[in-house]
């Protein structure tokens, strides 16, 4: 993209006539445009510039008792609005005087023998050409100015909403919803773009109509009155249809959102639906919602058909009303029974100059003005939400070392609540230390971090903290973009630092599995990420940043035990060791490594100090977590910390209330192969294996070769569940063992679980090298006694496999990153045109060959009838001219109305019949066209649903 817009360097004529766009048009004619060819926006169109201007006036306006965002718009852009009003009004004046000039030109051509007539004709022709060119230029300029002003206002209002969100804490956000904010940005702010295109027609239309009707009444009064009555009648009709159209569209949007939500759920769970044969049930649900949507679509198309039809026949109906007045009620100047064709032509031109501004743009102005007032009111209500009070926020201090200081702090999420969220908190931390915040659920751990951030304003006490703070919530936030963009977060790319961050957060292993490495698109339209992957991306974003004070809200909960140990050792205690870290965690086995531990209970600090001090003080950490004993037992066993599904399967065992038993040396025989001929997974036999860390819902996967993938999950408790599945799905085997000790005459007996327990213990994973749901039904019967032969013989061998599978070669990783640079995901686009064959197919799907032919004939008939009205009016005028020339010796004056009124009434009756036929044909044309489209949409949707 060009860094400087050529408009800023263009001279006056170039800006006036848009000559600065010629190079772009020339390049577009030779080859398709790319992103690099597009000009950057001018400085005056920047979001900072337009937002600062609007924000200045809004800050003044909101000090009033009844502030109005609608008034702020006009105060901030009054000069732009005034210039656009002058431009548009000048254009309308040029268009309105054209019929008057045409009348004078025809008058001069009646007798060119007179020198004055010839001179007047030349002068009026010159003025007509000039006004036409001026109107053409001003039309483009007025639309361009309206678009730019609407765009500026949309950008500025969106920025004000965004800034308002940043000044609201979570407590204040309870008065609104995320959906409301999205609607303000996507719908309300966008209305400004089109509103300014038609807003001036609210006063230009009536003024122009008044002047034009006055000029027409100078020629003939009653016909002008008839034409004005018809045109005014169509204005409220158009407004009513526009209002009905808008209301139905709102309802359609709600039903469409519901249908898309249902279809998304169906697509995401299609395997389960297929497995249980629920296709017909869900198809019925989708069809019911689709039927409601299509019924509303039909009403909308009726409104559109009325609008489109009205634009076709409205001109002819108005002319018909005027001709009725000419034939039956004419009392114009001169001959009371005569009206020259020159004057009739002038009247028709006056009417044509009014149609766009009075019958089309004026109703749209009323609609957009109403919508703009509503949008301004909604944006105003959001901007007036009470913000954070500065005296209730943490005070930021500039220090050489990170610091956080609490002094008797009390805070409420609900100011009307009787019980404070945080009560009398006092502590002081300085320097790069690791602070653990522990406590039971609801004790106030996360609220403490929110108080440091300022999201939870304090009622008493005061808070001091460093300026540069980073925060990672429990649910990591991923924005649409590449994985690298999510980690860098707009910071400059540093290869060494970036690589170190990936290794510290184990994301280097995930990059090898993603289709485009760190250039893979993630977020709403990207690949799906697990909770553990999102947590590690959020932690990598924190690590890559430059904040010297980081707050981590339980980042280790979304990953398995071994990955949690790696993140804690390599990232939190390693890469982030020179920063102040406040870590909320439930993994109490990590507490001995903390510099300071804050124990929260009921919103208070129950204890604070080092681990040894708290143990000496009698703090029992096991009371803070129900399953702390099992968590400690899990961390003491190396093999269980090495397996990602250990925590998940352990929780399952606890739910069944199984009694644990110690594992002695005899139990190790379970891990020894019973038959030496069976293959064993090791680094020697599987040199291409790779290790993937995922969240506690995922399994550890070793890729043994291109056709075989094994999934291993094992836990050590009263029950050991061991499962290996070959991804070629030729052999699916499972066996569950229970090692509960039952002593019978000095011998230990192994109890085999029931079939129900075996089925309940089964764990499978989702795509990317794992079991698919369509084979899940056969796993209950896939029991093999040789499953143990696939397992490593010891934890030492398991660690060796991990070391072999992990890419430790620095050069290998750098080469891989360079490969991703070359194969980065890019947008795919095609250039060309749609063949007519597809339009024919679309029509055949909607109404068949017969329906397409009928619709085509209606289009042809409407066009022919529209042209026939003009032809009949011309024939009528020619007949009158001939008879007038034959019945008088005066020069041909082209009188339309003859002494014989019956002849003119016959001609008028024919014209009225043709106009009525035009109304019917144009209505049937629009209805038939939309019926074909609706039928096509319904059949295409049903066909895709059945497929």
Structure, described:
Keywords: ATP-binding, Membrane, Nucleotide-binding, Transmembrane, Transmembrane helix, Transport. Belongs to the ABC transporter superfamily. ABCC family. Conjugate transporter (TC 3.A.1.208) subfamily. It is a multi-pass membrane protein. The chain is an alpha/beta fold. Among the domains are: 38 residues, no CATH class; 185 residues, no CATH class; 147 residues, P-loop containing nucleotide triphosphate hydrolases (Rossmann fold); 152 residues, no CATH class; 111 residues. It contains 30 helices and 18 strands. The strands form six sheets. A six-stranded mixed β-sheet has the order 6-9-10-4-11-12, sandwiched between helices. Strands 1-5-2-3 form a four-stranded mixed β-sheet, covered by helices on one side. Strand 11 and strand 12 form a beta hairpin. Helix 18 packs antiparallel against helix 21. About 22% of the residues have low confidence.
Runs in which pLDDT lies below 50 for 5 or more consecutive residues are 332-337, 627-810, 889-902
Count of helical regions:
30
Based on CA inertia axes, which overall geometry fits? Answer: elongated
What percent of residues adopt helix (DSSP H or I)?
55-70%
Q: How many strand segments?
A: 18
C-alpha-based Rg, rounded: 39 Å
- What proportion strand? 5-15%
User: Termini, distance in Å?
Assistant: 43 Å
Structural class: alpha/beta
Across the major sheet, the strand order is 6-9-10-4-11-12
GO molecular function: ABC-type transporter activity; ATP binding; ATP hydrolysis activity
Transmembrane segments: 78-101, 121-147, 194-215, 221-241, 311-330, 350-370, 838-864, 908-934
Region (Disordered): 663-701, 737-765
Domain ABC transporter: 404-627
């Amino acid at each position: 993209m060009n860094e400087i817009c050529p408009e800023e360097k263009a001279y006056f004529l170039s800006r006036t006539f848009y000559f600065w766009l010629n190079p772009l048009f020339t390049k577009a004619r030779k080859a398709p445009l790319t992103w690099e060819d597009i000009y950057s926006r001018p400085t005056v169109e920047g979001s900072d510039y337009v937002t600062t201007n609007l924000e200045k006036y809004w800050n003044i306006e909101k000090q009033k008792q009844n502030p109005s965002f609608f008034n702020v718009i006009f105060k901030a852009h009054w000069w732009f609005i005034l210039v656009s009003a002058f431009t548009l009004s000048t254009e309308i004046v040029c268009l309105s005087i054209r019929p008057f000039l045409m009348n004078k030109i025809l008058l001069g051509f009646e007798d060119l023998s007179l020198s004055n007539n010839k001179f007047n004709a030349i002068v009026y022709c010159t003025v007509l050409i000039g006004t036409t060119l001026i109107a053409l230029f001003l039309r483009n300029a007025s639309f361009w100015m309206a678009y730019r002003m609407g765009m500026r206002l949309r950008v500025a209002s969106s920025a004000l909403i965004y800034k308002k969100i940043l000044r609201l804490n979570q407590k204040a956000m309870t008065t609104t919803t995320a959906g409301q904010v999205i609607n303000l940005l996507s719908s309300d702010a966008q209305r400004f773009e089109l509103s300014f295109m038609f807003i001036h027609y609210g006063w230009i239309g009536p003024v122009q109509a008044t002047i034009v009707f006055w000029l027409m009444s100078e020629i003939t009064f009653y016909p002008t009155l008839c034409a004005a009555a018809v045109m005014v009648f169509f204005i409220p009709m158009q407004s009513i249809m526009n209002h009905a159209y808008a209301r139905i569209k709102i309802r359609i949007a709600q039903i469409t959102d519901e249908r898309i939500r249902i279809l998304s759920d169906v697509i995401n769970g299609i395997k389960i639906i297929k497995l249980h044969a629920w296709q017909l049930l869900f198809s019925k649900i989708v069809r019911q919602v689709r039927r409601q949507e299509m019924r509303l679509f039909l009403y909308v198309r009726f409104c559109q058909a009325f609008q489109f039809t009205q634009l076709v026949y409205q001109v002819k109906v108005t002319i018909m009303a005027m001709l009725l007045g000419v034939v039956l009620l004419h009392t114009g100047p001169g001959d009371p029974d005569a009206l020259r064709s020159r004057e009739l032509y002038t009247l028709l031109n006056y009417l044509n100059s009014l149609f766009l501004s009075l019958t089309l743009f004026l109703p749209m102005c009323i609609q957009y003005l109403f919508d703009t007032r509503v949008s301004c009111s909604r944006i105003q209500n959001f901007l007036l939400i009470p913000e954070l009070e500065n005296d209730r926020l943490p005070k930021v201090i500039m220090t050489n070392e990170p610091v956080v200081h609490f002094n008797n702090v009390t805070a409420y999420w609900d100011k009307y609540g009787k019980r404070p969220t945080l009560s009398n908190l006092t502590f002081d931390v300085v320097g790069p230390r690791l602070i653990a915040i522990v406590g039971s659920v609801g004790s106030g751990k996360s609220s403490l971090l929110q108080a440091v951030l300022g999201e939870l304003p304090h009622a008493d006490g005061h808070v001091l903290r460093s300026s540069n703070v980073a925060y990672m919530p429990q649910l990591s936030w991923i924005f649409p973009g590449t994985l690298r963009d999510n980690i860098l977060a707009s910071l400059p790319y540093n290869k060494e630092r970036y690589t170190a961050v990936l290794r510290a957060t184990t994301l280097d292993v995930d990059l090898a599995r993603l289709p485009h490495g760190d250039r893979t698109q993630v977020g709403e339209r990207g690949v799906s990420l697990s909770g553990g992957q999102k947590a590690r991306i959020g932690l990598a974003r924190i690590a890559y940043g430059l904040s010297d004070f980081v707050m981590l809200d339980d980042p280790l909960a979304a990953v398995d035990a071994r990955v949690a140990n790696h993140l804690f050792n390599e990232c939190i205690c390693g890469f982030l060791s020179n920063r102040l870290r406040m870590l909320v965690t439930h993994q109490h086995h990590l507490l001995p490594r903390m510099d300071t531990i804050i124990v929260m209970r009921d919103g208070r600090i129950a204890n604070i100090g080092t681990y040894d001090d708290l143990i000496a003080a009698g703090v029992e950490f096991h009371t803070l977590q129900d399953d702390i004993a099992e968590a400690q037992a899990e961390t003491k066993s190396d093999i269980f910390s090495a397996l990602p599904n250990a925590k998940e399967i352990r929780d399952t065992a606890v739910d069944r209330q199984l009694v644990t038993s110690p594992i002695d040396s005899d139990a190790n025989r379970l891990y020894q192969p019973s038959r030496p001929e069976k293959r064993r997974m090791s680094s020697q036999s599987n040199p291409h294996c790779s290790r993937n860390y995922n969240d506690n819902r995922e399994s550890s996967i070793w890729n043994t070769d291109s056709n075989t993938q094994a999934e291993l999950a094992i836990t050590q408790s009263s029950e050991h569940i061991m499962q290996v599945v070959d991804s070629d799905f030729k052999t699916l085997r499972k066996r569950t063992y229970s090692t509960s000790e039952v002593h019978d005459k000095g011998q230990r007996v192994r109890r085999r679980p029931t079939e129900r327990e075996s089925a309940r213990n089964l764990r499978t994973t989702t795509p990317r090298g794992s079991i698919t749901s369509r084979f899940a039904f056969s796993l209950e019967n896939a029991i093999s006694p040789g499953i143990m032969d696939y397992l490593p013989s010891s934890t030492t061998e398991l660690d060796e496999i991990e070391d072999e599978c992990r890419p430790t070669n620095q050069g290998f990783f750098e080469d891989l990153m360079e490969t991703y640079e070359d194969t980065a995901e890019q947008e795919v686009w095609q250039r060309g045109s749609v063949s007519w064959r597809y339009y024919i197919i679309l029509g055949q799907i909607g109404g068949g060959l017969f329906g397409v032919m009928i619709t085509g004939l209606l289009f042809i008939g409407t066009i022919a009838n529209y042209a026939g009205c003009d032809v009949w009016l011309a024939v009528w005028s020619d007949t009158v001219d001939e008879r007038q020339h034959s019945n008088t010796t005066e020069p041909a004056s082209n009188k339309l109305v003859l002494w014989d009124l019956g002849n003119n009434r016959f001609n008028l009756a024919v014209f009225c019949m043709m106009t009525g036929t035009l109304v019917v044909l144009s209505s049937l044309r629009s209805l038939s066209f939309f019926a074909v489209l609706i039928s096509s949409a319904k059949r295409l949707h049903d066909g895709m649903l059945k497929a």
